[in-house]
Structures are given as C-alpha cells and as structure tokens.
C-alpha cells in the first residue's frame, strides 16, 4: 500500500507526556493554528478559540488554576499542585468551544468541531517534529476557572493541549485490531 505521509501521520500519532523546550513558535506555530482551521466546521461558524500560554503566561495560567482550586475548596494537595500544572510543558493551549447561535448547527456539533482542533493541532505539531498531549482534569469543567479565564456564557473548555519538544524519541504506537469495534449494518 502506498503510505502517504498524511496517512502515516494518522497511523503513527502518539501523545507525548514528557515535554521540554523549545515550544513551537513562528512559522511552525502558525502552521499548527492553520491545521486547526482545517477541521470540519459546519457553516464555518468557527466555534472555537485558543488561549495560548508560554513563558510568563504559564505562571498566569497556574495562578488562575490556584485561585480556582482555592475557590472550589479543593484538598490541600490539589491546591499545592495547581500552580505547577501548566509547567509540565513549555506551551499550553487552552482550547475553548465557543458555540455560535445557529438554527442549523447544534451546539453539540460545534463542540465536536472544537474538539477536532485539539487533535489537528497535536498532529500538526507531531508532523513538525514537536510533541503534545491532550489533557483535561477538573479545571476543564470548573465554572470558577472559566471565570478566571474570562470565558463567556455558553463557552466550554474542550482540552488543554500541552506542546513542546519530546524528551525521548516516541515509541511506535501499539498494533491494534479495530474489528471488535466495527459492526456492519
Ligand atoms: C478529552 C480528552 C481528555 C484527556 N485528558 C487526559 C488527561 O487529563 N491526562 C492524560 O494523561 N491523558 C488524557 N487524555 C488522553 C491522552 O491525550 C492520550 O490520548 C493518552 O495518553 C493515550 O496516548 P496516545 O494518544 O498516544 O494513544 C485525554 C484525551 C482526551 C480525548
């Protein structure tokens, strides 16, 4: 089979949890965001936006997480860990689903489009030699944290995309048989 580079990227996508600098910047980062814009987007509503943290921005994101943890009455170990969470990578992109009013496109569909941007950006980063992991956690669903980040009513976070340079060469993905998941109608 002719394995185009696009198919190869799909079949070999890996998450990378151990990330260090440099983070993508300049043209590479621009390409990553362009990949996000190529997700399927019914009526091109652009129901997403991206909050990018790097450098001091990671400190600010961590401080927002700390304040949200305190406001939510989280246990001491969660509060203590909160400001360090974003520092697991040199860049964190908080992906916000920002549904638009539409008689045609349900909010759920718009959330799906926003989710697709996370994977598109992760894959673009991998294709450029960077690594990334899509993370969630309780912050993602916390109203106090949403307020900290200035989310509007109706906006949701669909993921935190941690990006950087892999500390180790990526392992090849495990071979897996999809057939148990497939049912022909
Ligand atoms: C919505 C969503 C949230 C996730 N949240 C986390 C998370 O908080 N922590 C984590 O380790 N993995 C999380 N994952 C899974 C990783 O992104 C990753 O898929 C997993 O580590 C398996 O690695 P692989 O992508 O190389 O197969 C999440 C995935 C999705 C789709």
Description:
The mean pLDDT is 96. This protein starts with a helix and ends in a 19-residue tail after the last strand. It has 6 helices and 5 strands, in the order αβαβααβαβαβ. Helix 2 packs antiparallel against helix 5. It has a domain at 16-54 and 86-168: 3-Layer(aba) Sandwich (NADH Oxidase), CATH 3.40.109.10. Strands 1, 2, 3, 4 and 5 form a 5-stranded antiparallel β-sheet that branches. The protein is globular and about 50 Å long. With 185 residues, it is α+β, with helices and mostly antiparallel strands. The chain has helices at 5-11, 26-37, 56-71, 76-81, 107-127, 143-148; strands spanning 19-20, 48-54, 91-97, 131-135, 156-166. Flavin mononucleotide is lined by residues 14-15, 133-137, 159. Flavin mononucleotide (FMN) binds at residues 14-15, 133-137, 159.
Explain the layout of strands and helices.
Layout: H1 5-11, E1 19-20, H2 26-37, E2 48-54, H3 56-71, H4 76-81, E3 91-97, H5 107-127, E4 131-135, H6 143-148, E5 156-166
Antiparallel strand pairs: 1-5, 2-3, 3-5, 4-5
Helix pairs in contact: 2-5
Bound molecules: flavin mononucleotide (FMN).
